[in-house]
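Quick illustration for those who missed Monday's session on complexes.
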Amino acid sequence: MSDAPVIEIRNLHKAYGSLEVIKGVDITAPKGCVVSLIGSSGSGKSTILRCCNLLEDSQQGDILFKGEPVKWHGTGHGRRPADPKQVLRIRTNLSMVFQQFNLWSHLTILQNVMEAPVTVLGRDRDEVEAKARHYLDKVGIGDKADAWPAQLSGGQQQRAAIARALCMEPEALLFDEPTSALDPELEQEVVRVIKALAEEGRTMLIVTHDMKMAADVSDHVVFLHQGLIEEQGAPDQLFGSPKSERLQGFLRSTT
Ligand code: ADP
Ligand code: MG
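Prediction with magnesium ion bound:
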């Protein structure tokens, strides 16, 4: 099973009540690969990410983590993950970075990065602190360890959120529009960190509106339209010679 993809979703279906938003989607993120999800607002990108780490229920289809299928209990709208230990294992191994950073304002940057490894994983505090400082250095804000989130720029806060995700030492990172709350000049400092992570062979699933970043960092790009994959492929192919008219129109609208 060692070469199984870190994340695999097969024929995923998800509805909010009677609103069907994911209508049979397959996505695979092999180890060391970066897969980007692009598409218009409302096409289902965030929902797919949230289904992957089981923050959201889904009604049909399989979700596999390193070849291990999620065990379900019930069917359709009653379907829930059956094994809380499996849910915890998957969630702690797929660390999510959100558009709005979601740092805890009452904790320092260092405390933010240390919180989950200490409280959720039960790791030794001193070891976690050393790791947290290492990851803060890595994202270029080692000097902000004792600052409060409100004292940091948006780009610095997002880099802190990335350090926090890394400190969980997850199998993969999930990014939901990591740069879209940032001013263009701050966006670049976050893009540089994500690029460096891609270069060191991290497995990542990235939802982004930044087509340049998607083209630069991805091994595979998936274009979603109304809950279905409209087109997918290597970035050169997808951005260089898009086949579907919808993708062509979408790419025109984003440049
Ligand atoms: P994207 O991230 O591509 O913009 P989303 O996954 O957020 O798209 O949303 C897909 C669809 O699901 C949209 O029509 C959205 O309005 C709907 N949706 C998202 N979250 C909820 C929710 N909690 N309750 C009801 N509908 C939702
Ligand atoms: Mg979204």
